[in-house]
Specification:
The chain is elongated, with a radius of gyration of 24 Å. The protein is an alpha/beta fold and 371 residues long. It contains eleven helices and 18 strands. The chain is 30% helix and 25% strand. It holds the Pfam family Ala_racemase_N.
Length: 371
């Protein structure tokens, strides 16, 4: 069975890198764990490293986190559906909000559960995803603070998800100004501006994070060591926290060009083949993973002698050239994965999940010192 592996030592290394970076810049941060899709093994490994504040956009995942670590502050990071108010208050300590009717429902439910529910008001800053318009922010805040059992702990924004709008110093400065206006107008104090995500980290390196931006939500960079802003990697971080391993179930020397009339394949594509390869052969392998489990465009063989040819629903075809690495039936081939590849594999029940390199007692001692 194919499997995806989480290397906890490399994850710990990436965590320590980011934790030091944020400490040096007086920034609080939370881990966005939605990539893990609520998998208990992987969540437990993450919580052994960091259990202060975990964000997710799925209630079932937040429930798993609360079951594993009741003390962890859970954050629901998309505007809640009004009908889910009861579960939001039960499993999320904090939620991101943009609608007064929904916040009223959260208030009513918080009263029933004898809780204070914390919220972050999301502000539209150009990305055109969730967020209230800036002109309405002060009046919106004024209505929210009247609601019992609701505590506004921050304002925030989301960038770079739908339209690819990048954060910059000007946008973040404006958001900080809006916070100050609200505080002066309503004689209040808002603890956090949650305006940072993985794409914002490179602005820290350039000293372009305005004072007042004091909370980040980090997923991709923690798990992949990526510089999302520049579509590159961050030196000193691991990019291979995850890897995919698939088993060879067939290995045969075959023609490089198919024969017969050509139609579209199961994904609706009509493959194009290089006519220069007509009459040539290569060693081809089939592995036990397909497009139900992964997107072949988002993985890459770790061996330089292997090329992905294509995939059907539950098998993937590899070109091994002359099989210089001497692969045989039952051998496994490893693949590096990007964010979308891991997300699809984590959502597949047909891909096993395994932990690699449990954190040592020495590492845990270092971690306790850093925290």
């Amino acid at each position: 069975m194919s499997h995806i592996t989480l290397n906890t030592s490399k994850l710990l290394h990436n965590y320590n890198y980011l934790n030091e970076l944020f400490k040096e810049n007086n920034i609080e941060w939370a881990v966005v764990a939605k990539l893990l899709c609520g998998n208990e093994k992987f969540l437990q490994s993450l919580l052994e490293i960091f259990d202060k504040e975990i964000c997710d956009s799925r209630l079932t995942n937040l429930r798993h986190i609360k079951d594993l670590s009741p003390k962890t502050q859970t954050v629901y990071i998309k505007p809640p559906a009004k009908r889910l108010a009861e579960s939001i208050v039960r499993y999320a300590d904090v939620s991101f909000n943009t609608e007064l009717d929904t916040i009223k429902a959260l208030s009513d439910e918080a009263i029933k559960q004898n809780k204070t529910h914390k919220i972050v008001i999301m502000v539209e800053m150009g990305e055109l995803r969730e967020g209230i318009m800036i002109k309405n922010l002060s009046s919106f805040y004024g209505e929210v603070i009247k609601m019992p059992n609701i505590e506004v702990v921050g304002i925030g924004t989301n960038l770079n998800c739908i339209n690819g709008i990048l954060p910059d110093e000007k946008k973040l400065t404006e958001l900080n100004c809006f916070k100050k206006i609200i505080e002066e107008t309503h004689q209040t104090k808002i603890p956090f501006i949650s305006a940072g995500s993985s794409v914002t980290i490179p602005l820290i390196f350039k000293n372009k994070i305005p004072e007042g931006i004091n909370h980040f939500r980090i997923g991709e960079t923690l798990f992949f060591g990526t510089d999302v802003y520049h579509d590159s990697v961050i030196k000193g971080m691991y990019q291979d926290v995850f890897k995919l391993t698939a088993e060879i179930i067939e290995i045969v020397e075959k023609p490089m060009i198919p024969t017969g009339d050509t139609g579209t394949n199961l994904t609706g594509e009509k493959p194009v083949h290089d006519k220069k390869n007509k009459g040539k052969t290569s060693v081809r392998a089939i592995v036990d993973v397909g497009i139900l489990d992964i997107d072949p465009k988002n993985i890459r063989p770790k061996s330089s002698g292997v090329e992905i040819i294509g995939a059907s629903s539950d098998m993937m075809i590899l070109d091994l050239a002359d099989n210089g690495d001497d692969y045989h039936i039952g051998d496994t081939i490893e693949f590096s994965m990007n964010y979308m590849a891991v997300l699809r594999a984590m959502n597949s029940e047909y891909v096993d999940k395994k932990i690699e390199k449990k954190i040592s007692a020495k590492h845990l001692k270092i971690l306790e010192h850093l925290n």
